[in-house]
Amino acid sequence: MKTTALIMAGGRGERFWPRSRMNLPKQFLNLTDSDRTMIQSTVDRILKLADPADIFIATNEAYRTLVQEQLPEIPPENILCEPTARNTAPCIGWGAAAVRKRYGDAIMLVLPSDHQVMQPHLFRSVLRNAMQVAEETDALVTLGISPTAPDTGYGYIQYDPETPSGFSGTFRVQRFVEKPDLDTARKYLASGEYLWNSGMFIWKASSILREMEEHLPENYALLTEIEQAIGGPEEREVLKAKFSQMRSISIDYGVMERARNVYVLPASFGWDDVGSWLALERMNAADDQGNVIRGDVVKVGSSRCIVQGGEKIIAMVGLEDTIIVDTKDALLVCAKDSAGEIKKVLEVLRAVNRTELL
Q1: pLDDT in tens, 197-208
Q2: CATH of the domain at 240
Q3: Is the whole-model pTM more than 0.85?
Q4: Same domain for 178 and 313?
Q5: Which long-range contacts (CB under 8 A, 24 or more apart) does 206-210 make?
Q6: The pLDDT of residue 2 is above 80
């Protein structure tokens, strides 16, 4: 069965302000020591599994040009620009409808555009196993990351490690759970029955559309109208009219938590969801004082800092556990334990109408 991929690239990456902006969000940035942006690296990782002609990019119209510039190998008709934001279930549904329209049916890899994978060969090996399960069954398959700490920043997947599914390294999902508090996360880790929810999925287009027809019937009806218009003269008009009518809901809430035939593959391949500036400590080598630095920086008595320099020299003296990000028109100085509050800066900027900085 043909392998296709849907790369979700519509996010704004507000936790990476001031480098991530509305006109250049984090998936189009290079945040590591690599010379590739995050979306380019995402596509690079799957080129041994899917041909560029079979890779779809789900984004919005504002980012069409960025996608074309950074991924010239992707056919323009494979860039699916959502007319309005409607969360991941409508996004994935449209991608599946586009796959069904073109191929009848196919395996779909559904991947965020802004994750980091340190061991891509292991990642592809896990995906191949998942693809086999998806092809031989009508199941929805997801990848669960073996947790290394009681992290409260991830949703979790509960499974029974003593009851394999019959497919190598694959288990039936018992339930999806929301981000826990710290005590609950510690219990999850100690039990050995929980995995981090990676947000990566593998299934046949027919399988996910069948589940949407059952669990999100109103959305499915709209998707079929969009599918019928694909490739025709009224495609954009139908898409604009019908997509905005769909219920805005995540694929987890809308389908995964309700579906009965769901499998998970526990995996470890150096994964990071790159959720905030703190991820740079996990993704890049630190100096002997624990600083992760890019740019022209002079440090005196400073340790465990994250610094992204711009055009000017940055001198830091006596700092600990601090994030510094310098751009042409904005400077961020933030305590590391307040990294989750960076989005509030954008709320203030909107309130005072400083939209040029968003």
Answers
A1: 999 999 999 999
A2: 3.90.550.10
A3: yes
A4: no
A5: 206/100, 206/105, 206/138, 207/134, 207/138, 207/139, 207/140, 208/92, 208/93, 208/96, 208/108, 208/140, 208/255, 209/93, 209/96, 209/97, 209/100, 210/138
A6: yes
